[in-house]
Amino acid sequence: MPIAEALKKADELGFDLVEIAPNAKPPVCKIIDYGKLLYEQQKRDKLQKKRQHVTVLKEIRLHPNTDKHDFDFKARHAEKFLKEGNKVKVSVIFKGRELAYKEHGKELLVRFIEVLDEVSNVEHEIKFEGRTMHAILAPLKSKTKGKK
Questions:
Q1: Residues 98, 64: contact at Cβ < 8 Å?
Q2: 21-44: per-residue pLDDT in tens?
Q3: 55/43 Cα distance (integer angstroms)
Q4: pLDDT of 53-109, one tens digit each?
Q5: Where are the domains of the chain?
Q6: Which of 54, 55, 65, 138 is least enclosed, having the fewest CB within 10 Å?
Q7: Can you name the CATH fold of 57-139?
Q8: Among the CATH numbers 3.30.450.40, 3.30.300.10, 3.10.20.80, 3.40.50.620, which is that of 3-51?
Q9: How many CA atoms lie within 13 A of 8 on its CB side?
Q10: Which helix (H) or strand (E) holds 88?
Q11: What number of other Cβ atoms are within 10 A of residue 12's Cβ?
């Protein structure tokens, strides 16, 4: 159908002539309400974006002389983050003379990893950079994740 005739027919019906497949031979057009098409497309995009999960890296900071209660408190927070599907970076920050006792920081990180072993796996092993020692934990893939 010629373009002029298609435009005239669309105008009579009170709709728009929308090109659906411009690369086809001949190009394919439809007579539809363009505003409604845009609305439905935005709705689809919004729903797709809503279903998409972005993984966030949360950080838990400790010191080599962190007490048991503080350690447990931070471990519970890290467990909550992991259950939400976020990654957790556990850092031990050394200040001043604490740098002489790096083994205390390593023991602390190993203990932290052991506590969270049921809900996470180690993505990056313990690494020492500058005045910090850190490890990154990722949540375990669960089969019930889709059933919220």
A1: yes
A2: 888 888 888 898 888 889 999 999
A3: 24
A4: 777 899 999 999 889 999 999 999 999 999 988 999 999 999 999 889 899 999 999
A5: 3-51, 57-139
A6: 54
A7: Translation Initiation Factor IF3 (3.30.110)
A8: 3.10.20.80
A9: 5
A10: strand 87-93
A11: 9
| Helical ranges in the chain per DSSP H | 3-13, 34-51, 68-83, 102-115
Matching residue, tokens 């949360």? 58
pTM of the model: 0.61
Determine contact, residues 122/78, Cβ cutoff 8 Å. no
Q: Which two tokens stand for residue 19?
A: 């090109």
The pLDDT value given to residue 18: 87
Tell me the C-alpha distance between 65 and 138, whole Å.
25
DSSP-assigned beta bridge partners for residue 121: 138
List 132's β-bridge partners, or say none. 93, 129
